[in-house]
User: Which sequence fits this backbone?
């Protein structure tokens, strides 16, 4: 999957949990740290990034919201 497509999916899923600014800040940091100069994101990297985002949501919003977030982002990523 193209990196920009993945980031758009992740941004959409995070925007349902956090404010637009909070979602954008999380995506920006992840893009710099995890994805860097990568242009295509493989399934292993998608799973790793989704896990990182899940843990962030879980820490800030709780288990139920995190589980719903993970289901949403996994479905969107295919």
Assistant:
């Amino acid at each position: 999957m193209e990196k920009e497509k993945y980031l758009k999916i992740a941004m959409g899923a995070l925007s349902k949990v956090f404010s637009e600014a909070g979602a954008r800040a999380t995506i920006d940091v992840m893009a710099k740290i995890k994805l860097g100069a990568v242009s295509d994101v493989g399934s292993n990297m998608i799973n790793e990034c989704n896990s990182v985002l899940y843990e962030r949501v879980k820490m800030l919003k709780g288990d139920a919201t995190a589980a719903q977030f993970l289901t949403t982002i996994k479905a969107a990523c295919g």
